[in-house]
Amino acid sequence: MKVLLIKDVYKLGRAGDVKRVADGYGRNYLIPQGLAVLATPGAIKQVDRIRSRASEQRAVLNEEMGAVAEQLSSLKLSFAARAGETGKLYGSITSQDVVEAILEKLPVDIKRQQIDMQPLRTLGEHTISIRLTMDLIPEIKVIVFREGEAEPTLPIEPEEQAEETRAVENAAAVEAVVAASPEDTEAAAEPEPGPDTEEPGPESVEDAPVEELADEASAADDETA
């Protein structure tokens, strides 16, 4: 059967699109949920109006959810699970588990229907998409590790690595300054006299050697006599 979408439907189309779907999917889900109507000639005449209204609503929603998408994109989740030697889980990590883990970290309104994933059944790193709008579908990283083992660390992003490197370099510079002794600093500031350096001569009588002052006094007495 052909239907006209009157709302955006994830992985099917945008409002105003005409799609051919299975009869059961159209009659039992799309039409009852108010997502589509039968693609009759009269309904198709409303395509432009439907698309225009949906575009306006989509722009508003994208703006509202933009900050949420950024928060989710930087989110990293980890789950401890029992698994066999091959890495296959005895149970599984479901979309509801992911939603609960997200809500523990972020105050966002996320439902399990928005989590685009199959149940996770193996150890390792997984990427999961979260459908906020037709245009905003951030991805998050999920690590599933063996229960009883140390939680693995996720790879450090380039920006985080650069910040850590700068922090280490700054700390090393501070330690080098603190470690330098005052004597070393003064010695470095005062250059040693070279072989061609002349010693400064006396600039006043008070700086003259005692022997020279005595000779001058004797000569004055002889002249007076």
Report on the structure:
With 225 residues, this protein is of the alpha+beta class. Among the domains are: 44 residues, Ribosomal Protein L9, domain 1 (3-Layer(aba) Sandwich); 77 residues, Roll (Ribosomal Protein L9, domain 2). The chain contains 7 helices and 9 strands; from the N terminus they run ββαβααββαββββααα. The chain has a 4-stranded mixed sheet with strand order 4-9-8-6.
How are the elements arranged and paired?
Elements: E1 2-5, E2 18-20, H1 23-30, E3 36-38, H2 41-44, H3 47-73, E4 76-81, E5 88-93, H4 95-105, E6 115-116, E7 120-122, E8 124-130, E9 139-146, H5 158-179, H6 182-189, H7 210-224
Parallel strand pairs: 4-9
Antiparallel strand pairs: 1-2, 1-3, 5-7, 6-8, 8-9
Unreliable stretches, pLDDT < 50, 5 or more residues? 197-214
Q: Note the main sheet.
A: 4 strands, mixed
Q: Which structural category fits the helices and strands?
A: alpha+beta
Strand order of the largest sheet: 4-9-8-6
Name given to the CATH homologous superfamily of the domain at 70-146: Ribosomal protein L9, C-terminal domain
The radius of gyration over CA amounts to: 41 Å
- The gross shape turns out to be flat
Q: Helix count?
A: 7
CATH class category label of the domain at 70-146: Alpha Beta
Named CATH topology of the domain at 70-146: Ribosomal Protein L9, domain 2
